[in-house]
Amino acid sequence: MLYSCKLKSVCNLPVIYNKKINTAGTSNTDVPLAVPGMYQLDITLRRGQSLAARDRGGTSDPYVKFKIGGKEVFRSKIIHKSLNPVWEEKACLLVEHLKEPLYIKVFDYDFGLQDDFMGSAFLDLTQLELNRPTDVTVTLKDPRYPDHDLGIILLSVVLTPKEGEHRDVTMLMRKSWKRSSKFQTQSLRLSDVHRKPHLWRGIVSITLIEGRDLKAMDSNGLSDPYVKFRLGHQKYKSKIMPKTLNPQWREQFDFHLYEERGGIIDITAWDRDAGKRDDFIGRCQIDLSALSREQTHKLVLQLEEGEGHLVLLVTLTASATVSISDLSINSLEDPKEREEILKRYSPLRIFHNLKDVGFLQVKVIRAEGLMAADVTGKSDPFCVVELNNDRLLTHTVYKNLNPEWNKVFTFNIKDIHSVLEVTVYDEDRDRSADFLGKVAIPLLSIQNGEQKAYVLKNKQLTGPTKGVIYLEIDVIFNAVKASLRTLIPKEQKYIEEENRLSKQLLLRNFIRMKRCVMVLVNAAYYINSCFDWDSPARSLAAFVLFLFVVWNFELYMIPMVLLLLLTWNYFLIISGKDNRQRDTVVEDMLEDEEEEDDKDDKDSEKKGFINKIYAIQEVCISVQNILDEVASFGERIKNTFNWTIPFLSWLAIVALCAFTVILYFIPLRYIVLVWGINKFTKKLRSPYAIDNNELLDFLSRVPSDVQVVQYQELKPDPSHSPCKRKKNNLG
């Protein structure tokens, strides 16, 4: 009865389709509709045209809602000051009954006021052909004024049946929306379906080389172009190239390929505009099904709805070893499989597949004492395990604060300096998943085969939250491959939250940079005091040392001094005279920042005005990020010599020994000659090589002081010890 009432209340709104929908073809009206969770509806919200003006300036700030069965399942981002907005957003929805239409509503965002209605329409799902991409145009109408023309919305939809054993892992992409903030984060919700052992079938490696003759979007006849890529729910955004129509990006990234037959990569080019909405330059697509495997393809793509070309290199490779299985199915406990894995990463196979550095196995056993997220005093927890861009999920344990998952996850390691992130969420049927806790574990800090209770932390990883999670992790890797991979650029993560402006974050970065600068200032004061003979004994010793070093100086002494400093700190650590101190200043600042985050969540309506001041915000965020980069650079150098990550400090010792020997035996002119020849001929030998700096790539793997605090393992309550738990069970 409730369903029929809902249908009657909206039946006077139009259902209008594009002519591309072939209602005379193979429709799905004869398919039984009673089976819940039977269909997956993939929707791409393209753009709007000639929408209604709702603001005084003759424009609107439109966004779109999707509803099914009266429940909101998707909300788009807000496009400011436009009647022809371009969204290019995708949603993957589970549809239980095709007789329930997709309800599309468009609103104009008004800060501090009720949003204005801009029109609505229905999409009849029974008229869609199965497994066929369909372009749909819906005409927006207002039920109160049916004669008014409110514009159109352009969509692309694909309806796929999900039956029986052929069901795949289905993830519902939703927006965790806060209407007062433009910074929206995406979360995932799992349906309770059977998972296949391999969640993706291959890797798509893309190198964005350059753009040619792009359209000028700025008044100076140039543009500040960047490119967005999307494959399913995976997204990537390139760096911005200022003031050019022929940008050189030289960026490389990987996507997961979930479908055997391939997929479509959507590519859009944009011009960055500070203080207003970015300008659309053009779009193009890559049909992966038309490309052969295990071969690199050079593509020159014409931008549609714009001008210019993009040049890319695309390579499709077979799937890496990434899987989910039950606890009883354990690769490392099988002697044959373990021997094969150890052989694969043995020192004898140094140059075999340099990208395959190691093997990671994560046993997600259980959690205890989780936070109650539902009104019933319970939660529906599931666990997300992430390594860089590889993301796997457990099943949901309903109505339980002490869930047991007993799942085994395996990953290929591409960078031994990666951080394993394990996050626990509460599944909510009608809303985005609620955060329950998180841990971040650097791979180099893992103790193999040991079951440990990790205290869950908050979102910023700055302090504990309620509950612990039991994990058992094993890492097997080739140390030589890992060292070589340290000298190439880190893998970039897919698009995350935009950097937000934060008073505490700005202050924290300023203090961090000030501390780094003060080290240099204090060193200068110390040297100057030697010149002033404030301490005669110290000044005399410094004068004698100066004469000795200058008279006997050779270039090889520079890396030798750094080598001695590393060795000195190492012996201090092993002798128990560790001069490294816990950075309580950074911890306190991180806690203050989290308090500000909580306050922002509560008072977001009051502070939402800051999102309106786009130009000031851009400048402040840039300053905030520059301070962070400068401070992190200094902290990473310090942490290299402090042996914060022993693997990297040993690697630095090996490199400095090699440099010392080379500079001692080989004249400087020959070294400079080889370096210059390599630099001048690099583009001739490898035209599409990605530029990199080995020293900066090395330092990027060393954690800053903020990351050191975030990766610190909190001490669990002794009552959560696995050994004590076993004794209690025996008792």
UniProtKB/TrEMBL annotation:
What SMART domains does the database record attribute to this sequence? C2 (SM00239)
For this protein, the record's InterPro entries field holds: C2_dom (IPR000008), C2_domain_sf (IPR035892), MCTP_C (IPR013583)
* Subcellular location(s) of the protein: Cytoplasmic vesicle, Secretory vesicle, Synaptic vesicle membrane; Endoplasmic reticulum membrane; Recycling endosome
What protein does this entry describe?
A: Multiple C2 and transmembrane domain-containing protein 1
Species of the source: Tursiops truncatus
What PANTHER family does UniProt report for this protein, alphabetically?
Answer: C2 DOMAIN-CONTAINING PROTEIN, DYSFERLIN-RELATED
* Topology class, membrane: Multi-pass membrane protein
Record key words, sorted: Calcium, Cytoplasmic vesicle, Endoplasmic reticulum, Endosome, Membrane, Metal-binding, Repeat, Synapse, Transmembrane, Transmembrane helix
Which GO annotations describe the biological process of this protein?
regulation of neurotransmitter secretion
Q: Which Gene3D superfamilies match?
A: C2 domain
Q: Which family does it belong to?
A: Belongs to the MCTP family.
Q: Which residues cross the membrane?
A: 540-573, 647-675
* One GO cellular component, as annotated: recycling endosome
Q: In what residue span(s) does the C2 domain sit?
A: 20-138, 184-301, 335-456
Q: What is the lineage of its organism?
A: Eukaryota, Metazoa, Chordata, Craniata, Vertebrata
Molecular function via GO: calcium ion binding
